[in-house]
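SAMPLE LOG
Freezer: B-3
Tube label: C17
Construct: single chain, 172 aa
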Amino acid sequence: MAKLWRCIVCGDPYIGSNPPDNCPFCGAHLKYIQDAKTAEVSFDVELTETDRVNAQRALEVEVSNSTFYFQAAERTDHAEGRLLFKALGKVEKEHASIWKKVLKLDSIPPGSETCSEDYKANLQESHERESRAIAFYRQAAEGSGSERIKELFGALVEIETDHLDMSAERLA
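STRUCTURE (predicted):
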């Protein structure tokens, strides 16, 4: 019997007999997916100046990364790479949406990144982007006094680590 589940990281619902191992929208791990009837999801967070600056930077990182991945999906010379980059672009765009909600913005700003046509070069760029995001998100989580902001940054560290592992596996 199908149930309604909800990711407490991105807030999106999922229909299925069981919760997915990862949110199909933002990539959050199973521990963040709850029964929709009882899931508590809030983006109405009182931000300190530090949290606001970090959320704004996180939005910029996610917009940049999603734009890069969508560009790579269009331009790369590798069939699996096109699929991988398209999937990563969608997830990163969902991450940008999280910060849009936290910052109470009307829209997500456009990105302007470019990429190579070479699959391996784009994988290497992906690896570097994910490494930078993880380092920043860890620092932002540690510097926040808000449990919700810590939770969001912590979940993103886990998700971006999954992405890092994917690029590392393919670069090997």
